[in-house]
Amino acid sequence: MDAVLAIAFTLPVVELHAPKPEEGDLAAAYLKLAPEYGAYVLSVVLIGLY
């Protein structure tokens, strides 16, 4: 069961990428990706509760 949880936590991370700031504003680039990171955090919480 632990291996299944480890894979379930790891696979979504493959789709997360570091932002590429266009004008040097790294904080704004991360804010654009906030929904993706939030979705990953939510999935980790839901899997962890299961």
Write the layout of secondary structure elements.
Blueprint: H1 2-10, H2 26-32, H3 34-49
Describe this structure in words.
- This protein has 50 residues and is mainly α.
- The chain has one domain.
- It has helices spanning 2-10, 26-32, 34-49.
- The longest helix is centred in the last third of the chain and has 16 residues, at 34-49.
- It is built from three helices and no strands.
The domain count comes to: 1
Overall number of strands = 0
Uncertain residue ranges = none
Indicate the multimeric state.
single chain
- Beta-strand portion reads under 5%
Largest sheet: none
Whole-number mean pLDDT: 84
Order of helices and strands: HHH
Alpha plus pi helix count: 3
Shape: elongated
The helix content is: 55-70%
Evaluate the radius of gyration: 14 Å
The CA-CA distance between the termini, in Å, is: 11 Å
Overall structural class, as computed from helix and strand content, comes to mainly alpha
List the keywords.
50 residues; mainly alpha
Summarize the structure.
64% of the residues lie in helices and 0% in strands. It is mainly α. The protein is elongated.
